């Protein structure tokens, strides 16, 4: 068996000789280079070489003797034995044949590089095939930025010695493995200069929800170690795989991280590889560390790698700041999110909670309660009792034993792919990472609730909150005579909600998406040049990474809409254009200078009436541009559009024309445009409204308010607000019948059926085609509809004949 193999000649079949990491590198270089995946070249030493090195002079027997009598729980003894073994290994010369082979392979590798200043990374790959690879991750050493054969040889020996670092020795003993079961392969690979570039991690699925159609990329400046450790809060990107395969714009979501520091080399020496954290310049922090083109290139590599291995993958990447190119450094199977078979669903639901103490990125969709343990370092490990909430600046592999005992983890620093996040996911405990302030703001000993049950943002609340955990089998939902859809307005929760059984999204309110993704009044963005003061500064700061104010609105809105459309594709997703009232619009940043004060905003300048007035036309065109981009450019043609609060047929016609003028013509690229049926006029002369639309979705909130004359926001008259009132039912019957007669879509998306299952039953009997519910009531309503008899609600006296079907 040879002692050294070029990476290009290695494949997965060589795993026993070069370990998982190096086998995977070789496999990618050999098989995927032709498909465009760029992996830096080099060579690896074999397990055979390692064993012959240890066998020389009986070193292996001496090591075995020292370890056989060692009690690894005696920390002092372990430290002494480990240090002694490592120096024995470093002092022993390499066998002459191995040294010669390494020198030759290195000379050939250098010869392949055109760059005279190229340096090298020396990494370790453990060869124990039957051990879970993840547990070895991070146990052995890596030496970066090495130049010259002599230094390479020294680094290889240090890599060999690192199989006997204290953590690795203890790990093997705890897992019941003989030390001699494991060998080390060292790889010598061209150093990708991410210290002056950028780096990060890619997962070929969304790690929080397990959603398989997206690629998640994290990125920050400097060496990747900082992202993996969680020392920086990186930028994050989600890319839609079907869009990528079709060659369309496919970036669903961009999230700007702080990237406050970067790990770089301390000096220009290529012998001393010590690293330091340096502050990142404010203008570099304020922009994304990857361009859209970079993101797409990385996502393409990830797709090729995932297809090749046939399973979700966890990948490290880096951008060389000198040649500007993107490289893949490592790929291994993703083992946590991909475990979920989708047959059942655990959902934590938070009912009430104490004061908000800290917020950050949510890891794990669960809720944990316990006493706070603020830890300055892992040396304080003994203070943590089972069920405590660990609060730390950040964590590394040394923390793993203590993390196993925790009810939850909270860190100041880190993003979704940092060490704390990865371990928390594997352990199935909630974590909130990147809070910025938790170690300062949380009080040691105080009981807190760590909640990751509300999407991407995780929260720490004072005290023990009221929550429940629900497990539902969702693989065999019984048949029901209606489509159950969901109301989803939060883009960051869309992937998680899409796991529920569903027939698509019946209502995505654009107001919610604008609030979450933009938060700025559209007119203030359009007028940015003429604004000044703090508001102008704040708006300028937010729009900077997107190139300009209009681009900011359109691209951010497209991100929010495309997240929802992608999560539920190919099922329909009905997005409703904005229906802010004037008082609500005034609350957006800069909004007060554009919104009139109305006595009755609920009955005022809202919905369709805005789109057809000059002062809002440009804002409406930005909404249309985002929707058109998602449908026609990104290819998410499952997106349908809905228009709210259309008072008159004249308004209906004007809106239809305004949509068409903005590139959204009914029928074009399969576009369907619905109308909210939520004003009595809509139902009374339904046919005339339906001339301009492809169907109705009943807004029972506004409809009930307007039929009964009850202000839906007033506590004083709340008792009179009931969607099941006979007068309301009668009006709804008119709308349902009109749509069914014309063979047009008829659904409902108001709150009524989520709150009143008997109302849902009545609607089914009355001939509705789809019911859109709040996500938390979908499973319960589904079961009830599957089990029930006829609806218990009285038919209104004047009701027409029961509807004969969905279309006539
Ligand atoms: C409704 O009126 O029932 C509806 C769904 O719209 P909104 O609640 O947004 O007014
Ligand atoms: Mg409404």
Give a quick set of tags describing it.
single chain, 808 residues, alpha/beta, Dna Ligase, domain 1, D-amino Acid Aminotransferase, Chain A, domain 1, Glucose Oxidase, domain 1, eight-stranded parallel β-barrel, seven-stranded mixed β-barrel, 31 helices, disordered C terminus, binds phosphoenolpyruvate, binds magnesium ion, ATP-binding, Pyrv_kinase-like_dom_sf, EC 2.7.9.2, PPDK_AMP/ATP-bd
Description:
Residues 482-787 form the PEP-utilising enzyme C-terminal domain. Belongs to the PEP-utilizing enzyme family. InterPro entries: ATP_grasp_subdomain_1 (IPR013815), PEP-util_enz_mobile_dom (IPR008279), PEP_synth (IPR006319), PEP_util_AS (IPR018274), PEP_util_C (IPR000121), PEP_util_CS (IPR023151), Phosphohistidine_dom_sf (IPR036637), PPDK_AMP/ATP-bd (IPR002192). It holds the Pfam family PEP-utilizers. This protein is α/β, with parallel strands linked by helices and 808 residues long. Among the domains are: 4-191, ATP-grasp fold, A domain (Dna Ligase, domain 1), CATH 3.30.1490; 195-338, D-amino Acid Aminotransferase, Chain A, domain 1, CATH 3.30.470.20; 354-472, Phosphohistidine domain (Glucose Oxidase, domain 1), CATH 3.50.30.10. The chain is 37% helix and 21% strand. The strands form six sheets. The protein has an eight-stranded parallel beta barrel, surrounded by five helices. The longest helix is centred in the C-terminal third of the chain and has 20 residues, at 549-568. Residues 132-137 and 796-808 have low confidence and may be disordered.
